[in-house]
Write a structure and sequence with these properties.
By secondary structure, this protein is α/β, with parallel strands linked by helices. The chain is built from eleven helices and seven strands. Helix 8 runs antiparallel to helix 9 and helix 8 packs across helix 10.
């Protein structure tokens, strides 16, 4: 494993604002779902959801130049994307700290659309609700329902250790997290100018 695989390269919103004004070769890729992107995204960024990026990393890497910034909400998905791209030879990509909301808070130019809860907030709500249901149900209905809290806790621990989220993937497939036009690999990758030009 190279140092590019293990070192998180971050970029703060103010620096991104400067880069956007100074560098025409800059490519900003938002790896959140299409619904999250539709709700709020950096003007001029491209939406390549992490599952598409993961399946077509080499195709995307072939189109990218030296100056790439990856965006999500917390940095987790953007860092996963950075590691995938590093494995494909793009070792200069940066992860935007604070994601699209942080960029907006820093006065960056963003596009706002239909408002939805972001996926990470939905995961916290569902996980918390399941744990609460298991504990309250275990107290008043059947002690066996406490198992639900244990299963969710185990899932969250595995999620943190593996830096993946099965619940997030399941929630992303829900109808309220879909847009009228979900990006395809061909469309998402071809929208990006070759070599960041």
């Amino acid at each position: 494993m190279t140092s590019a695989d293990t070192t998180v390269a971050t970029l703060d919103p103010q620096t991104l604002r400067r880069w956007m004004a100074q560098h025409e070769d800059l490519v900003v890729i938002d790896v959140r779902s299409a619904a999250e992107f539709e709700s709020l995204h950096i003007r001029g960024s491209y939406n390549v959801p992490l599952p598409l990026l993961s399946e077509h990393t080499a195709d995307l890497a072939a189109r990218l130049g030296e100056r790439v910034v990856l965006v999500c909400r917390s940095g987790v998905r953007a860092e996963q994307a950075r590691q995938k791209l590093a494995g494909a030879g793009v070792d200069t990509a940066h992860v935007l700290t604070g994601g699209a909301p942080g960029f907006a808070d820093a006065g960056g130019d963003v596009v706002r659309g239909a408002q939805r809860w972001d996926l990470e907030r939905q995961v916290r709500m569902v996980a918390g609700s399941l744990v609460l249901t298991g504990l309250v149900g275990g107290r008043f209905v059947s002690p066996r329902l406490r198992t639900l809290a244990g299963v969710v806790g185990t899932g969250l621990t595995f999620s943190a250790a593996s830096n993946t989220c099965a619940m997030g993937k399941a929630l992303a497939a829900m109808p309220w997290n879909r847009t009228a036009e979900e990006p395809t690999a061909t469309g998402a990758i071809r929208q990006i100018p070759a070599d960041g030009a």
